[in-house]
Specification:
The chain is mostly helical and 130 residues long. It is built from six helices and five strands. The strands form two sheets. Strands 1-3-2 form a three-stranded antiparallel sheet. A two-stranded antiparallel sheet has the order 4-5. It is elongated, with a radius of gyration of 26 Å.
Length: 130
């Protein structure tokens, strides 16, 4: 049985963070927050929405960043997260194919290509060098 994520209304969020509901509406208009909606069209904020709001408030209140700057920072964070996930997928791929990759040997001088070698060919090549 899957649990529904906890949600909060705009008035509860505004009270919790000491901001006016209009501020939350402004953040939504600016694309900084994207709360879901109930069937009655009431804004519903989830825990990830609140984490994002806390970051927005920290940037604006503590660091004096304007909303355009907040948008840039949030977009950069999303891109960095996507790059991190892509790196992790690539690293997992490398780990899962490590044995195959050890069977690759550099191509002859003057070529940047990798040449796959069978175990027998690799052994022959090693013994011919000695």
């Amino acid at each position: 049985m899957s649990r529904k994520p906890r949600t909060y209304t705009i008035s509860a969020v505004a009270d919790q963070y000491g901001i006016h509901p209009q501020t939350l509406r402004l953040y939504e208009r600016e694309g900084l927050l994207k709360p879901s909606r109930s069937e009655g069209n009431t804004r519903l904020y989830t825990d990830p929405d609140l984490e994002r709001l806390e970051l927005i408030l920290s940037l604006t209140r503590d660091l004096g960043v304007n909303l355009a700057g907040v948008e840039i920072i949030l977009n950069m964070r999303e891109k960095m997260d996507a790059m991190q996930q892509e790196f992790e997928r690539f690293f997992q791929y490398l780990q899962s194919h490590a044995e195959e990759l050890t069977n690759f040997e550099a191509a002859p001088e003057g070529s940047d290509a990798l040449v796959p070698l069978t175990r027998t060919a690799a052994l022959r090549r090693r013994t011919s060098r000695q």
